[in-house]
Design goal:
single chain, alpha/beta, Rossmann fold, eight-stranded mixed β-sheet
Length: about 280
């Protein structure tokens, strides 16, 4: 299997923030191929999806969004709208509506917000795969102890994500160098990014999940501290059509570390959506 080649298809700037759509250079006929749209997580990039995309069916058209919470952002984007608003703006840049959303972590929660809070929008019924969503039923009161614990968890996730991105690009760094690199990232991210991240998550327990009509597939690890299994069971009980796939071996960044398994779950989910191809035709050989 060869690595996918990408091109930047469209870019817009709204309120000083850039939104972009990247697509595979070679994809099937746009009129018949299912269109899969990828929504990256906090401090990730559109190309964080590359390991997964290489495992997805070649018969699918894939578009990866570059969103305001990407790696390198100053994270001032919430001054001009929440995550769902920015996602909606990015989707309007597409030249063709999606047939399937795939979102990771914070991006998965942005999808949940979009599907729950914009019931009259055409995207409201588009099926979605949520990979390791950081949705929670509720969080404790904001005490100094909780704030310190939340900050520790945030720092760990950012550091682990950086390490995985480096390894994906063939760079193996020592623990000491990783700490130095992570400290530089956190120096940029924490002043606004940490607060904005948790302010977004604090809105999630109040989502009107009963409004979600789209079929959802949730792929997550049982031992993923950032996406607690019990909370995802509650999510399944509140949304009309949810398939929950949880296994012990999946990490928070499973779309990068275990892309074959995640792609298999998505492929198996596609026939449920009545897209143009059968399960056998959609599988990558």
């Amino acid at each position: 299997m060869t690595a996918a080649r990408w091109r930047e298809e469209r870019t817009v700037r709204i309120d000083g923030t850039e939104l972009a759509v990247w697509g595979r250079e070679e994809y099937p006929d746009a009129g018949t191929a299912p269109h899969v749209v990828l929504v990256h997580g906090f401090e990730e990039r559109w190309d964080s999806w590359e390991p997964l995309v290489e495992q997805l069916p070649q018969t699918a058209r894939v578009s990866a969004l570059s969103l305001p919470w990407r790696a390198g952002s100053p994270h001032t984007w919430p001054r001009h709208g929440d995550a769902a608003t920015w996602l909606l703006r990015a989707l309007e840049v597409l030249d063709r509506p999606p047939d399937l959303f795939v979102g990771h972590s914070f991006g998965a929660c942005a999808l949940l917000q979009l599907l729950a809070r914009h019931p009259g929008h055409p995207y409201h019924s588009v099926p979605a795969t949520l990979v390791a969503p950081v949705w929670r039923v509720s969080d404790p009161s904001l005490t100094p102890e909780f704030f310190a614990e939340a900050r520790t968890r945030f720092r760990y996730t950012i550091t682990e994500g950086l390490n995985i991105q480096l390894r994906t690009r063939g760079r193996i760094v020592s623990p000491a160098l990783l700490r130095i690199m992570a400290a530089k990232v956190l120096k940029r991210v924490e002043p606004e990014g940490f607060l904005q991240f948790y302010l977004e998550l604090a809105r999630l327990p109040e989502l009107p999940l009963d409004r979600i009509l789209a079929p959802l597939l949730v792929v997550s690890g049982l031992d993923d501290a950032a996406a607690p299994g019990g909370d995802l069971e509650v999510l399944r009980s509140r949304v009309r059509n949810v398939t929950l796939c949880q296994t012990p071996h999946l990490g928070h960044f499973c779309q990068t570390q275990q892309p074959g398994y995640v792609a298999e779950q998505i492929t198996d989910f596609l026939p449920m959506l009545r897209l143009p191809h059968s399960a056998e035709e959609m599988r990558t050989t």
